[in-house]
Specification:
By secondary structure, the protein is an alpha/beta fold. Helix content is 36%, strand content 23%.
Length: 231
Amino acid sequence: MTSTTSTTTTSTTPADSAGTETHEMRRTREGYDAIAPQYAAHFREEFARKSLGRAMLGAFAERAADLGAGPVADIGCGPGWVTDLLHGLGVDACGIDMSPGMLAVARASYPELTFTEGSMTALDLADGSLGGIVAWYSVIHVPPALLPRVFAEFHRALAPGAPLLLAFQVGDDPLRLTEAFGHDVDMLFRRLTPERVTDLLRGAGLTYEAQLVREPYEGERTAQAYVLARK
């Protein structure tokens, strides 16, 4: 899910202990449930304008289609924009998200696609069953201690040679939202560095392929990164 920039307070809250859903992740899910319709309406056009990100999604889709190793999962799919884009590029794509509110928006917007509730810390998927994974601004909601577990899950679920594409905000300090679209929330957005992410990917047995880092557009607070890897 792409993060909202409506109201912010910085924080260095420590990571929660390991588990399928930590307190931090539960609060994030509750926040997205509360703001899902407003979020989808507000950020839809912004997603459509971000041509460099969509270009990376196009490169990912081409690799997944060429490999033909199975369906592609958009993990942390939010309102389903990326799932729909991949579908339009000829990829057999489905969406997974931990927020029932976001899934309701996605299902209403794209009834022809499949959206399932689930957590990237424990994917309900068979080993090697996916022909690709996209995590579009979704690993930013994972406590640092759980990132190795998440990338190990991605590795487990991917077929040999299948691509993985990550998008995230660049930085070291997390961002906490306490209000968004008129709702009280408690949502932590953890910025990452490409170097840290590629190290974690390699540690999970994934092969780094490429990255694109761009300067922030108007309204964004930090640079944005897209990292492409494969199993």
